[in-house]
Write a structure and sequence with these properties.
single chain, 545 residues, alpha/beta, D-Maltodextrin-Binding Protein, domain 2, 2 domains, three-stranded antiparallel sheet, 41% helix
């Protein structure tokens, strides 16, 4: 064997070792960390932008058509002539082939389309959790594998510290299958409206705690014995959800899984048997016993509750930013303008402190698994990223076209003279949503706090600022990443438990179930399999952790 041949073998062996090391390193990069680090194959898209980053206007190289579901609101039904649709085509070179579904049937028909394999590529108006039933079938895309192709989404996740909230979307494979709407900050909306003229008449300041609110309502009852100060709407569910945070638990609309995370013990407990939950129902039972809370709050429909409030039969009611405006408008007719004053109160604090729950996530988008095989998949992701997650796209979807539907004056957005939306310009003869397509639920959600506040009245901005100034945000509980079979078992165990909790909660509050029998209530839950449910949750949590 001559020296030249030996040298050749030596170089060949070095190349083989080097190649092996490259493969090993590449595999390590794929497996270390979470599933977002996986390298995924994306077919080249001739119509995607070659260079697309944060702040860039997306525009496909050639005209494209993407299919999409559309939840059709009866108050502003879809029109293919909308300026929204025309302008999307103009700005992005994308046509949208819409599958129009009545809002009332959207959830059911969306499920049928996905299950049958006939779903459009873009599936918006999907709330967190609604994607879970489709994960195992592989019919929707594990979108977390592809967010590297969505620079605006990634930028907001990082800048706004969204990751702790995304954790709750991850499935047992570590991936998430929903692109949620993203808010810069938690946006608290629901609270109580109160007759501030009566509060001032009685010599009180606005309440900061539930105890202070009770003290005011006692005085209201003494001054107006014919009234029941607090008659609630939404079957008390909104109020219990708001109040529960200050009692260190969850209830009402926020009951969720009925599990609460104990950070000190690093485990989950059944929240509806905690000391905080007992304090919560005891407080509201006390309001009923003192004649301060209308018993019909748990059964009456919204119209009945509203009628009592606007007629002056009650002085406190559940509200949000829109309904408080509606109350004021109706009370101008029933009580006369200038004869009353109402305001949203800062969510009262409780025994656990001045805490605020909430999320930075909103309803979002599923992408059909078929999309990854589409020759324009990368272009589709760029389109979604621009329209739903770029600053420009979010402002466009909300306000429309500058110079047509709105103007900017020193950075402040103002509706055009002939355009109205949620009472911002009462003299406008055209509706921003119904006549132009903007500010609708399929496109316009999420964004900066400035964009969110841009359509708020001054009083709502004051409420938001006061909430953030006085409240400590409670981060979401860590996720429990059930497998498909584990999730099915958890649902079988939790459904009767949660139904029982809902009924027993009302019974405790109304006095139909004696609070001295609390231990019996806990025993009934144990007999229904509560501990099995908690044990399953903790086993899965520890395993996935």
């Amino acid at each position: 064997m001559n020296k030249r041949f030996k040298r050749f073998l030596y170089l060949l062996s070095c190349l083989m070792i080097f190649s092996f090391l490259l493969v090993a390193c590449n595999n390590a990069e794929k497996t270390e960390g979470n599933n977002e680090k996986e390298v995924v194959d994306v077919p080249e898209s001739e119509n995607a932008m070659d260079s697309y980053g944060v702040g860039d206007q997306f525009k496909a190289k050639e005209e494209l058509t993407f299919s999409m579901t559309f939840s059709d609101h009866p108050n502003y039904p879809y029109k293919k002539e909308w300026l929204l649709i025309e302008e999307i085509k103009k700005r992005t070179n994308v046509n949208l082939d819409m599958t129009i579904i009545p809002m009332s049937d959207y959830g059911e028909k969306r499920s049928l389309l996905i299950s049958s394999g006939n779903a459009p590529l873009i599936i918006p108006k999907t709330y967190p959790g609604e994607e879970t039933p489709f994960v195992a079938s592989g019919t929707i895309l594990p979108i977390s594998d592809y967010v590297d192709l969505m620079p605006n989404f990634k930028d907001k996740v990082e800048k706004w510290n969204i990751e702790p909230f995304l954790e709750g979307l991850r499935q047992d494979d570590g991936k998430y299958y929903l692109l949620p709407g993203l808010h810069e900050e938690v946006w608290p909306d629901y609270t109580l409206a109160i007759r501030t003229d009566i509060v001032e008449e009685l010599g009180f300041e606005m309440p900061n705690t539930w105890d202070e609110l009770e003290e005011i309502m006692v005085a209201m009852k003494e001054a107006h014995p014919e009234s029941t100060p607090f008659s609630d709407r939404w079957q008390l569910n909104s109020t219990l959800n708001v109040a529960a945070v200050g009692f260190g638990t969850s209830a009402g609309w926020g009951l969720g899984s009925a599990l609460n995370y104990d950070e000190q013990e690093d485990k989950f407990i059944f929240g509806a048997t905690s000391d905080g939950y007992r304090q919560l129902v005891t407080y509201f039972n006390g309001l009923v016993e003192k004649g301060l809370l209308d018993k019909e709050s748990v059964t009456q429909d919204d119209d009945q509750a509203i009628k009592k409030f606007i007629n002056g039969e009650s002085f406190v009611i559940g509200t949000n930013s829109q309904t408080v405006v509606d109350y004021r408008k109706d009370m101008n007719e029933t009580l006369g303008e200038g004869n009353f004053a109402i305001k949203k109160i800062i969510q009262p604090g409780g025994p656990a402190g001045q805490l605020m729950g909430g999320s930075k996530l909103e309803n979002g988008i599923m992408i059909s698994a078929k999309a990854k095989d589409d020759p324009n998949f990368e272009a589709l992701l760029q389109f979604v990223d621009w329209l739903w997650y770029s600053d420009e796209g979010q402002e466009f979807a909300k306000w429309g076209v500058e110079g047509v539907t709105y103007t900017k004056d020193g950075g402040k957005r103002v509706l055009a003279d002939d355009v109205n939306y949620v009472g911002l310009n009462p003299n406008g003869t055209k509706a921003l949503n119904a006549d132009f397509g903007f500010s609708g639920g399929n496109f316009a959600y999420g964004g900066t706090t400035d964009l969110l506040h841009s359509m708020f009245a001054e009083e709502e901005i004051e409420f938001q600022e006061a909430m953030h100034a006085t409240k400590e945000l409670v981060l979401p509980d860590p996720p429990i990443k059930y497998s498909e079979m584990e999730l099915e078992r958890a649902n079988l165990l939790s459904t009767p438990l949660k139904d029982f909790v809902a009924t027993a909660t009302y019974e405790f509050i109304l006095g139909d179930r004696d609070l001295s029998k609390w231990d019996d209530y806990v025993k009934e839950l144990e007999n229904m399999g509560m501990q099995d449910y908690v044990d399953l949750a903790n086993e899965v949590y520890k395993k996935s952790k």
